[in-house]
Design goal:
The structure holds two protein chains of two kinds. Chain A is built from 14 helices and two strands; from the N terminus they run ααββαααααααααααα. By secondary structure, chain A is an all-alpha fold. Chain A has one domain: Orthogonal Bundle (MetI-like fold). Chain A has a two-stranded antiparallel ribbon with strand order 1-2. The longest helix of chain A has about 35 residues. The relative contact order of chain A is 0.13. The mean pLDDT of chain A is about 90. Chain B is mostly helical. At the A-B interface, helix 1, helix 2, helix 4, helix 5 and helix 6 of A face helix 1, helix 2, helix 4, helix 5 and helix 6 of B.
Chain lengths: ~290, ~290
């Protein structure tokens, strides 16, 4: 029984304000971004309609090719490392009684810190003179491997990718751990009584029962990779050139540094479409594994 | 939760094996935790050292203790103003998002149970990357002269946080807010507005605290919109002003370390106080049932 049925004004009063704000700033904005992406525009002089020219320009821009490849390499590395470490650490914590809450708290710690703070911390760590990484290398007698991490164009991409992946591993550990804890105990109990070892239980029971959660992690990682901004912007501004730029940074720099609002909008639309495409693709793949 | 290990058959050899496995497990977990914890300690120690010390002995304790970094950092980031700004932006956003999204969630889950499109419509927002809306929002803010204003930034923060708030609170109200209680309130003569404020809101407290914690941390740590909107140093967030500090003093490691610790200390404090809520905010959507 719906006791509020007779209040016809309910929707306008209760959901109206949120609906208007959300519709104008989020939904309509997407449409406007698409419209801008079809124009040449520096946000000062009038727009000039040019159809798909901004997209064509992007696909023939060698910088954009580097940015795309950075983004995809970043995405694949993040998927492998974050899901892998997420499963491993979650299972180890799950099998721990003494210290479980302690480990969980520390593993998640970097996630609650500002990405800007983590980026500035890693800028200090990667400092070529006084940074932690070169100091560790020198202390281990590997001084020849010491690099100018943030300006050497051969390694800068990995230096920027490291904190991006490192910072959010904790999210996936917590998600996967919560999933493990929701697996009925009887199932695991009977497996152990039947003599299955820890690894066997992990592979044959825990992982198959967690496909939903793993899919959710994959979607979060995909979305995160395409919109990643802070680490790359703060550590290197995406440079040198676009060596350590990802699509999110490239979009910002194109729009606000080069005053190319049409081109920036085109990149924004590609980010949106990539996210939708990849999440659909991963959904399909996981659905195939999910019996 | 019971320890799964206790179901394994522990006889002779296997006890030894499981002991070794347990030691390995703890060693690995401790090693990983040190990578999340030690960097913070290192930065904190460096806040009391100068470049010469950091360069000479990277892992040593401060000797002598340099006390000048913090006063210099406080001044450089205009601590009293930017801290107040960050608190204000985060607190106002939390209050507005809670009210707007609790009202919407109440309508969706209790007043308009049959139409589900509104819920799906709001939830799409969680998937939308910020870049897809960044330029139009910037243009709108410029049109209404809201660039470089507190109002402009707070409007953006509220609009972009609504989806998450509605998502969590809908989930909470479906399970945690029984229809019978609302019916009883209506029979006692409450209209929907009374029922919402006097019955639904108090009962939804747990869900509200979860949303509040999560959004507070999100806004505290937000960087992109603050960078885009705030050129005036007196309106800047703590986050942005520590970043700006780097422009001036990028080579002064002790000073930068002090700035970073000022920025992360409140987030760590909130995490310690509201750990359960932070974890719930993350897992609420993922776990069914």
């Amino acid at each position: 029984m719906n006791v509020f049925r007779k209040y016809k004004w309910g929707g306008v009063v209760f959901a109206g304000p949120a609906f208007l704000l959300y519709t104008y700033f989020i939904i309509i904005s997407i449409g406007r971004s698409f419209y801008y992406s079809l124009n040449y525009w520096d946000a000062i002089s009038p727009m000039r309609f040019k159809g798909l020219a901004n997209y064509q320009a992007l696909f023939s821009d060698p910088d954009f090719a580097i940015v795309m490849s950075n983004t995809f390499v970043g995405l694949v590395s993040a998927l492998i490392i974050q899901v892998g470490m997420g499963l491993l650490l979650a299972y180890l914590i799950y099998r721990t009684v003494f210290g479980m809450r302690f480990y969980r708290a520390l593993v998640y710690l970097p996630v609650v810190l500002a990405p800007a703070a983590i980026s500035m911390m890693f800028t200090l760590f990667f400092n070529s003179d006084v940074g932690l990484f070169n100091s560790l290398l020198r202390a281990a007698g590997l001084g020849s491997l010491a690099r100018n991490w943030l300006s050497d164009k051969n390694v800068v991409f990995y230096a920027v990718l490291t904190p991006m992946i490192y910072q959010f591993i904790g999210s996936y550990v917590i998600l996967i751990l919560a999933g493990m804890q929701s697996i009925p105990e009887e199932i695991l109990e009977s497996a152990y009584i039947d003599g299955a070892g820890a690894f066997r239980v992990f592979r044959s029971i825990v992982v198959p029962m967690l496909w939903d959660i793993i899919l959710m992690c994959i979607i979060m990682i995909t979305t995160g990779s395409f919109k990643a901004f802070e680490h790359s912007y703060i550590m290197t501004w995406g440079g040198p050139g676009v060596r350590s730029a990802f699509m999110g940074v490239f979009m910002y720099n194109t729009t606000f540094l080069e005053a190319d609002f049409g081109g920036g909008s085109a990149i924004a639309m590609l980010i949106l479409v990539s996210i939708l495409l990849f999440t659909t693709l991963f959904r399909r793949i996981v659905a195939r594994f999910d019996y | 939760m019971k320890n799964p290990a206790m179901y394994s058959r522990e006889t002779g050899n296997s006890i030894l094996k499981s002991r070794a496995a347990s030691v390995l497990k703890h060693a690995f977990l401790l090693l990983w935790c040190s990578t999340t914890f030690y960097p913070i300690i290192w930065v904190l120690l460096n806040a009391f050292r100068d470049n010469t010390q950091i360069y000479g002995k990277p892992f040593a304790l401060p000797n002598p203790l340099i006390s000048g970094n913090y006063p210099k950092a406080f001044k450089g980031i205009h601590l009293e103003i930017t801290l107040a700004n960050s608190l204000l932006y985060a607190a106002l956003t939390v209050v507005l998002v809670i009210i707007l999204s609790a009202m919407s969630a109440f309508y969706i889950t209790k007043m308009a149970k049959k139409n589900t499109w509104l819920y799906s419509y709001f939830i799409i927002g969680i998937m939308i990357p910020v870049q897809a809306i960044l330029i139009p929002i910037f243009i709108t803010m410029r049109q209404f002269s809201l660039i470089n204003t507190r109002t402009g930034l707070i409007i953006i923060y509220v609009a972009t946080s609504l989806s998450f708030g509605i998502f969590i609170l809908c989930g909470f109200m479906r399970k945690g807010l029984p229809d019978e209680i609302l019916e009883a309130a209506v029979i006692d003569g409450c209209g929907p507005i009374d029922t919402f404020f006097r019955v639904a809101m108090p009962i939804s407290q747990t869900g509200i605290v979860t949303v509040a914690t999560f959004i507070f941390l999100g806004i505290w740590n937000e960087f992109l919109f603050a960078l885009l909107m705030l050129a005036n140093p007196l309106l800047r967030t703590l986050n942005l002003s520590v970043y700006m500090l780097r422009g001036q003093y990028s080579s002064d490691q002790g000073l930068m370390s002090a700035g970073i610790t000022i920025l992360i200390a409140p987030a760590i404090l909130i995490y310690i106080l509201f750990q359960e809520q932070v974890v719930k905010g993350l897992t609420a959507g993922a776990i069914k049932g």
